[in-house]
Amino acid sequence: MGGNGGPGVSAKWICAALAAGLPAPAVAAAVTETRGFLRPLGPIAELQRTELIWATVLILAAILPVLFGVPWILWRYRRANTAAKYRPQWHFNTKLEILMWAGPALIVAALSLWLAQAVFRIDPYRAISPEMAEGMDFAIDGDTVPVDVIGLDWKWVFVYPEHGVASVGEMVVPVGRPVSLRLTTDTVMQSFMAPGLSGQIYAMAGMVTRQNLIATETGSTLGTNTQYNGPGFARQRAPVRAVTPETFEDWIAAARSGGTPLDEGAYARLARSGDLAQARADLDLAGEGPILFTLAAPDLFDRVVARYMSGQEIAREAQPGSPSYRPEALDLPDAPATMMEHAQ
User: Fold this and answer.
1) Are the C-beta atoms of residues 45 and 193 closer than 8 Å to each other?
2) Which superfamily does 136-343 belong to?
């Protein structure tokens, strides 16, 4: 593999991706975007890796005696071994009971203490602050980048409200700057995970969940939906690229200058069920790969959430993901002022 998780491709990765049952486009993504929490791009995924290692070591302390003890007992008390003592009346041993129960109890206590502390340290709702950076030994180099994430069937829409752009098919974040995600869906429940940067977080229609992350080195991971949501589930994958601040600004500039306007009509067509290739066809865009947008509706995320807050049932033809869905029936209400204030 190339340095910093570059796009080096080998037959081993291709075979692994094919064996996992991924379709051809997903295979291409799998072999080029291989950074996960075992090769993290940031401190949150790094701490999750440490948690896994320690949990594995502690649990092995209970499992290894069983793995080695059972074969030893079978060999020691085999029929041919007449030297082994036969005690048919034996039924209790205090030392053995203490050993059997004290070990697991200590393991549970140690895991509880370690993981409880880690949960508070990397709470997904906890904003990444200088205090957090000092405690976890990483540096912050710039202001927080807000990103609104909308889940559709079967694609993610990444909205950068402060920059006036959006994308489908990839998410780009600058190294050294905290990234604050707000997540929702305009269809069924989903779950977003970019394992090289953070853990998974659920997203539900009419609700807003949050995830905070930061990259400390350049590279790519694969943003996926870990909640099954239909036949296109396996294709709901988007590279999450951590780039230098200069590259990030260039990407923003490219979206502003050449992006497709993302207004209510474009969003309505984008909301049809389908993967990235289908989204290009629905928007009459040639080519392939990620789609960049200029954000004609800065409050798009809040208006999507507001659709489910009226207390009224949404008609099937206006519901993305429904077999009866028609783009012209989609209506995005104005976001309540209280929602906008809360978002800020």
Assistant:
1) no
2) Cupredoxins -  blue copper proteins (2.60.40.420)
First to last CA, the chain: 41
What is the spatial distance between Cα 215 and Cα 219, in angstroms, rounded to a whole number?
A: 9
Q: How many whole angstroms separate alpha carbon 228 and alpha carbon 233?
A: 6
297 compared with 162, residue with greater pLDDT: 162
pTM comes to 0.81
Distance CA 81, CA 73 (A): 11
Domain ranges of the chain: 3-34, 43-122, 136-343
pLDDT, position 79 = 85
Per-residue confidence (pLDDT) for residue 28, from 0 to 100: 40
Contact status, residue 295 vs residue 263, Cβ threshold 8 Å: no
Tokens representing 238 are 């988007």
Residue position matching structure tokens 């209280």: 338
Residues 6+ apart with CB under 8 A from 55: 111, 115
C-alpha separations of 342 from 124, 150, 211, 237, 264 in Å: 18, 18, 16, 30, 23
